[in-house]
Amino acid sequence: MASFSLKGKSAIVTGSTSGIGLAVAKTLGETGANVMFNGFGDLAEMDAARKELDVQTAYCDADLSKPAEVRRLVAEAKSAFGGVDILVNNAGIQFVSPVEDFPDEKWDAIIAINLSSAFHACKATFADMKAKKWGRIVNVCSAHGLRASPFKVAYVSAKHGIMGLTKTLALEGAEHGVRVNSICPGYVWTPLVEKQIPDTMKARNMTKEQVIREVLLERQPTKEFATVDEIAGIALFLCSPSADQINGVAISADGGWTAQ
Questions:
Q1: Cα torsion for 83, 24, 235, 11, to the nearest 10°?
Q2: What H or E segment, with its residue span, contains residue 43?
């Protein structure tokens, strides 16, 4: 892919204080885009990344479980940068439990943050993207948007919903220069994955090593975790001219999981 610049573009990356989101935010910023960071992770790590970027950056502590807070995030990005050209819906949480024991409040929280927040962010940015005849929405989905696993009823449901959102908005934006796609990683070594190991150990009565080998990497033929930089590279590609005709698709980065 030929080199290109995102100078003059502005991006929101949700859940960008750590993990995949931080890597995506850094990569977009390094390519010239102004970046609005968001999340509740390690703010020191995020601040260090922002200082290294030669673009405008900002941070919003919006709680994405609340629609009004999502709208505040978008409004602050528009105020800081003059508009939003790129939206990366990455924020997510996880909980692992058999369905009969799955707490109602965990279901509500996962649906709110992993699915509904993406809808509200898209709704708040879509009209402006259409008016400008250019916009890129990248939904960080999951192999679980294409496949199911036991004990993850809320997460799998939310990620399948993200795929429906992606396809619908891709059609709505197709004639207006707006491209909407999803990235579907397998297991990426991030704080979110690391934190679910104890719950999986409990649910399956396994050791940590067994969870990594027999659960997390069991379905990935490469037997390797994806890296956050690999996912960030895909997000950048989807914002490039080379991806102008890629619309409404799921790009799998799962080591072959969904090929089986």
A1: 0
A2: helix 43-52
93: left (phi over 0), alpha (psi -120 to 50) or beta: beta
Does some domain include residue 200?
no
* Model confidence pLDDT, tens digit, residues 57-79: 999 999 999 999 999 999 999 99
Query: Which residues, including other chains, have CB under 8 Å from residue 99's CB and lie 6 or more apart?
Result: 151, 153
Q: Rounded mean pLDDT of 6-14?
A: 98
User: Looking at the domain assignment, is residue 232 inside a domain?
Assistant: yes
- CA-to-CA dists, residue 53 to 48, 173, 253, angstroms: 9, 30, 27
Amino acid present at 88: V
Which of 37, 95, 155, 225 is flagged as catalytic? 155
- What are the strands of the beta sheet with 250-253, ordered from one edge? 57-60, 34-38, 10-13, 86-89, 135-140, 178-185, 250-253
Is residue 155 flagged as an active site residue? Answer: yes
User: What mean pLDDT do residues 100-117 have?
Assistant: 98
Number of domains in the chain: 1
Share of the chain above pLDDT 90, in %: 92
Domain contains 258: no
Decide: helix, strand or coil at residue 135: strand
Does residue 237 form part of some domain?
A: yes
Specify the higher pLDDT residue, 200 or 49: 49
Domain range for residue 148?
Answer: 10-186+227-249
The CATH code of the domain that includes 43 is 3.40.50.720
DSSP 147: S
pLDDT band at 83, cuts 50/70/90?
A: very high
**pLDDT value at position 208?**
93
| Beta carbons within 8 Å of 18's beta carbon, 6+ residues apart | 39, 41, 42, 45, 46, 190, 191
